[in-house]
Design a protein that fits this description.
Blueprint: E1 4-8, H1 17-26, E2 31-37, H2 49-58, E3 63-68, H3 76-81, E4 86-90, H4 97-106, E5 110-115, E6 133-137, H5 152-165, E7 171-175, H6 182-189, E8 193-196, H7 198-201, H8 207-215
Parallel strand pairs: 1-2, 1-8, 2-3, 3-4, 4-5, 5-6, 6-7, 7-8
Helix pairs in contact: 5-6
The protein binds ribulose-5-phosphate and cobalt (II) ion (CO).
Length: about 220
């Protein structure tokens, strides 16, 4: 399948967000990635459904919403109404992850399950049949601009082998520290969707150059 770039706007310039998103779209990104942080599940606060709804008006690309919040069930309907196409939730803080994924599906959205660097890949196997994608964090969540953790590659390979062995229609997304050097490593391990934030939006050579080097 075609490899895809999901552009995380976390480190974009919010004073001109629309032009940043349009530049990313023009440069060929496939999805827009929204990082939702509550200052509780992760040590940072980002933005909520109101901003997500504004982003929806700025682009026709699919919107990939990564919920890093303590009570995802409380907000799934709001982010669905705000125009998310894909909604992913973490496995770590949720004893009712099966129900939460059902909740995403009931809202008519593609569901994803997310793993932190310290979580074994087996933790998501009981819900693998329910999701369209698995998001493997290659940094500890909460901040953009961190360095890629190479130990995530083994997890990607292991999950990729499991998906192939079971002939499942599940994509592997990787998030954190992806740039022109780390993208090929994650691709070789089996990742198909690459969340890229600061490498695109804070690239000193600009967004088109960043996308050219990622595609190369
Ligand atoms: O989920 C995230 C952080 O928790 C972000 O999606 C991720 O960090 C992307 O930013 P960058 O490419 O700068 O690492
Ligand atoms: Co993210």
């Amino acid at each position: 399948m075609k490899k895809m770039i999901s552009a995380s706007i976390l480190n974009a310039d919010f004073s001109c967000l629309e032009s940043q998103i349009q530049a990313a779209e023009k440069a060929g990104v496939d999805w827009i990635h929204l990082d939702i942080m509550d200052g509780h599940f992760v040590p940072n606060i980002s933005f909520g459904p109101q901003i997500a709804a504004m982003v929806r008006k700025m682009t026709s690309l699919p919107i990939d919403t990564h919920l890093m919040i303590s009570n995802p069930d409380q907000f799934i309907a709001a982010f669905s109404d705000a125009g998310a196409d894909y909604i992913s939730v973490h496995v770590e803080n949720n004893p009712h992850i099966h129900r939460t994924i059902q909740n995403i599906l009931k809202n008519g959205k593609h569901a994803g399950i997310v793993l932190n660097p310290g979580t074994p890949v087996q933790a998501i196997y009981p819900v693998l049949h329910m999701v369209s994608y698995v998001l493997i964090m290659s940094v500890n969540p909460g901040f953009g601009g961190q360095s890629f953790l190479p130990e995530s590659l083994d997890k990607i390979s292991e999950l990729s082998a499991k998906i192939k062995a079971e002939k499942r229609d599940v994509l592997i997304e990787v998030d954190g520290g992806i740039n022109a050097e780390t993208l090929p490593l994650a691709a070789k391990a089996g990742a198909e969707i690459f969340v890229v934030g600061s490498y695109i939006f804070t690239n000193p050579q600009g967004i088109p150059h960043a996308m050219q080097t990622l595609k190369a």
